[in-house]
Amino acid sequence: MDLRETDEQQMLRTSVAAMAAKYGHDYLIAKAKTGEKTTELWAEAGEAGYLGVAVPAEYGGGGAGMVELAIVAEEIAAAGCPLLLIVVSPAIAASVIATSGTPEQRERWLPGFATGRTRMSFAITEPDAGSNSHKITTTARRDPDGAGWRLSGRKYYISGVDETEATLVVARLEDAASGALRPAMFIVPTDTPGMSYQPIDMAITSPERQFTVFFDDALLPDDALVGGEESGLAALFSGLNPERITVAAYSNGLARYALRKGTDYARDRSVWGAPIGSHQAIAHPLAKAHVEVELARMATTRAAWLYDAGDHAAAGEAANIAKYAAAEAAINAVDAAVQAHGGNGMSVEYGVGTLIGAVRTARIAPVSREMILNYIAQHTLGLPKSY
């Protein structure tokens, strides 16, 4: 593995950064405060081909991979205007459909992902299941009249349902004969009768909202099922590594933005005749955070490279490591930047206090720090299962 980016990857990084710089953190905060969406930024990123960079070329995408999509996610976040829907739509949903969808599903959905015209949310979490996906109770059963599938259940903390055309729903198939349940995934258009949603009041400053989603005997056609009746688990896992990788990239970008704000302030702010950055109490936390962020970025690149190479076993471990490292690095970077600003760090004007909730969330979602440590302990270190 060569950690040096190709000329094409460097050009992609530079181009995305230049585009995102036209928007910035003030744009994001203004949208969040007024309840608007980052429509303009998403549209420009889509038209430029950035959102579809990992979609196969035969469907109009860039034909690249997760390394390139991680670059896109990171650079947009590094401008202070992260797009959470990159994680759920081009990373999870598009990856699942590209790898596990039927030819008809690929033809229907992937061209829209390639341009950013199609946005799809992802629904796995449930109120009573938490991180235990084996406890998912959202269930699909055959319609008794043979019209397709009937989906019933409830999902929790689902991002951006109000701005997506469909939701990729993780459910369980009910075997009519045995009553046994097995994983399955369905594409559910947002206007499906029997599907409804309500917002969750969050303490995070973000234009992208969280929802509880309800399925009340929602009727789905046969072709809503992704991956077939026996391959739901494989289809699900094809989206989880891209999810972790792009969350890591998103966190790395936010960390870089925070460090830039913190170091600029420490360089310019003068107290007692000297810039505050000349004092180790300010400089060392920022320097330490920079080291941690660079390590997290390398871990993210490695995870994306392994995924693109098709080494899914190694990519699973690497993606978890990258997500863990990036979340911790981002939290520390934002904390150092806020502390460097002193009281100004909690002012919206200076653009760092508004990041606290965003980076803190990455320690919890899409998989918690503790569950990652459980995974590493069991699968990497060979320790007994602890849960």
Automatic annotation (TrEMBL):
**Keyword terms, alphabetized:** FAD, Flavoprotein, Oxidoreductase
**Co-factor requirement:** FAD
Q: What high-level taxonomic lineage is stated for the organism? A: Bacteria, Bacillati, Actinomycetota, Actinomycetes, Pseudonocardiales
Q: Where is the Acyl-CoA oxidase/dehydrogenase middle domain?
A: 121-202
Which residue range or ranges hold the Acyl-CoA dehydrogenase/oxidase N-terminal domain? Answer: 6-116
- Which InterPro entries has this protein been placed in? Acyl-CoA_dehydrogenase, Acyl-CoA_Oxase/DH_mid-dom, Acyl-CoA_Oxase/DH_mid-dom_sf, AcylCo_DH-like_C, AcylCo_DH/oxidase_C, AcylCoA_DH/ox_N, AcylCoA_DH/ox_N_sf, AcylCoA_DH/oxidase_NM_dom_sf
Q: Which Gene3D superfamilies match?
A: Acyl-CoA dehydrogenase/oxidase, N-terminal domain, Butyryl-CoA Dehydrogenase, subunit A, domain 2, Butyryl-CoA Dehydrogenase, subunit A, domain 3
Name of protein: Acyl-CoA/acyl-ACP dehydrogenase
> Superkingdom of this entry's organism?
Bacteria
What are the Acyl-CoA dehydrogenase/oxidase C-terminal domain coordinates in residue numbering?
231-379
The family annotation for this protein states: Belongs to the acyl-CoA dehydrogenase family.
Q: Which organism is it from?
A: Pseudonocardia acidicola
